[in-house]
Amino acid sequence: MSDLDVVNLLVIAGGTLAIPILAFVASFLLWPSALIKVYYWYWRRTLGLQVRYADCGGYRFCYSYRGKPGLRPSILMLHGFSAHKDTWLSVVKYLPKHLHILCVDMPGHEGTTRTNTDDYSVQGQVRRIHQVVSKGKKPFHLVGTSMGGNVAGVYAACYPSEICSMTLICPDGIKHPCETKFDNHLQDLEHSHYSLGIPLIPTTPEEMEDMLRLCSHVRFKIPYQILQGLVDVRLPHNEFYQEVFMEIVGEKSRYALQDHLHLITAPLQVIWGKQDQVVDVSGAKVVAETLPGCRVDLLENCGHSVVMERPRRTAKLILEFIISQQDTKKSSKKSS
Questions:
Q1: Residue 5 lies inside a defined structural domain of this protein
Q2: Strands of 50-56's sheet, edge to edge?
Q3: Domain match, 91 and 4 both
Q4: Which of 96, 97, 102, 156 is nearest to 130 (CA)?
Q5: CATH number, domain at 188?
């Protein structure tokens, strides 16, 4: 092979490598939001999750799933305010692959139909989710975080026969005795008649960073371009998020979980970050006092974003609880 052939080969090889590298750099600098979407797609694919749609009376739910119904109960996971089904990817990573897992986009979020504000109150979201999951034959384990925890608790109270057990992670909807940093923001918002910016609806990379600091005790070092991408993904939906926010802090929804706690009959697990600045950890005590049989797991050095900050620990706790409840039922059947 001549020196010229070697040079040509190196140029071709270098060009072949350069194309994906340049594409990545260009995406990172110019279209970070596109890179974030590809990232979620790749992670879902790696974990074996498939995206599907369920149509019910003209309403469409988007969800991702893995596995098939088996000996263990199916797990239905409800994300928090302004999030989406991919919120759960970090937890799903640590759950056994044989488990049947469904992560839904909550009403109006991501790929699920966006209609009117009646669907965004906690009770409205419960009704919509019931449209889809009522088709299932076996009781399932329900998991909800933050707003999704509020919805999950009310769901369990309204449809007890459908739930075999449940996990609430830093659930909203509780009259917690101690105020948080977010409670102070909320009071300022109310005094301004909601003319101030809402901390959970960022419009700039700086506001996105502030929101992440509010929601997480663990400090994640996130490049400015990624913060910009996260904002770009959310910006088209901020008007919708504001509608949802006004509904869930409204009189009908703000303490919906608190109002329904006494109606919950399913075995209950509560997971809470001790350094939660959005929904104070004192809410766990309120739940335990109303439902003395519930299991409470408080996580050290963890904020509101338990799913992001402690995914491995969260998955382990959920799995342990599901197994313990099944063992309890087996023991009860043998003794009877």
A1: yes
A2: 50-56, 59-66, 101-104, 75-78, 140-145, 163-169, 268-273, 295-299
A3: no
A4: 156
A5: 3.40.50.1820
Say what the pLDDT of residue 57 is. 77
Considering the domain architecture, whether residues 2 and 150 belong to the same structural domain is answered as no
Give a yes or no: residue 334 inside a domain. Answer: no
Q: Which residue bears the tokens 């809402």?
A: 198
Residues taking part in catalysis: 146, 276, 304
pLDDT in tens, 146-186: 999 999 999 999 999 999 999 999 999 999 999 999 999 89
Beta strand extents in 90-224 (DSSP E only): 101-104, 140-145, 163-169
Domain count, the chain: 2
Q: How many CB atoms lie within 10 A of CB 12?
A: 10
What is the rounded distance in angstroms from the CA atom of residue 298 to the CA atom of residue 302?
A: 9
Tell me the one-letter amino acid at 150: N
Residues 39 and 94 in one domain: yes
Domain of residue 24 covers 1-30
Q: Centre a 10 Å sphere on the Cβ of residue 264 and count the other Cβ atoms it contains.
A: 24
17 and 110, same structural domain? no
Return left, alpha or beta for 152; rule: phi > 0 is left, psi -120 to 50 is alpha, else beta: alpha
Distance of CA 120 to the CA centre of its chain: 16
| Residue 118 binned pLDDT confidence (cut-offs 50, 70, 90) | low
